[in-house]
Amino acid sequence: MNVTKKLMVLLASAAIVVCVVANAFAMKEEYNYMSPASLQNAIEAKADIAIVDIQVADEFKEHHIKGAIETGAYPVKTDVDTQKLDKTLADLKSSTKPIVVICPRGKGGAERTVDYFAKNGIAPYRLFILTEGQGDWPYAVEKN
């Protein structure tokens, strides 16, 4: 293979990698995020929001945001996990308030929860994920 062909193959490969990586990051843009400061401001302002915490029971007991609805649904990968979310679904669907999903790190479990809620009739514009999850929450927490 001559130098020109090698260069073309290398450039084409690089372009494919860039497209794949760009699409991976773009997929994250389908979710709405809320920063800890914004959520804390909403809590302090007594805004009408629903805070849905999917941490496992032991983690929820150790630390959770005041007013959070405990589900214990993490990691939201099985039917048993989503059945735990079903307990809150009717109340959430019957309201119009924003919903902030709290998971340990604000990643896969929260995304699966948002996907599940959207699939079950909650408007996506109402669904938010706490950026970086409970693990990086810098404000006061409650313990049970």
Gross geometry: globular
Number of strands: 5
Largest sheet: 5 strands, parallel
Low-confidence stretches: 7-27
The helix content, as a percent range, equals: 40-55%
How much of the sequence lies in strands comes to 5-15%
Please report the distance between the alpha carbons of the first and last residues. 68 Å
Structural class: alpha/beta
Q: What sequence of helices (H) and strands (E) makes up the elements? A: HEHEHEHEHE
Going across the biggest sheet, name each strand in turn. 1-5-4-2-3
- Give average pLDDT, whole number: 85
Number of helices: 5
Radius of gyration: 19 Å
Describe this entry's structure for a reader:
The chain has 144 residues and is of the alpha/beta class. It is built from five helices and five strands, in the order H-E-H-E-H-E-H-E-H-E. It has a five-stranded parallel sheet with strand order 1-5-4-2-3. Strand 4, helix 5 and strand 5 form a beta-alpha-beta unit.
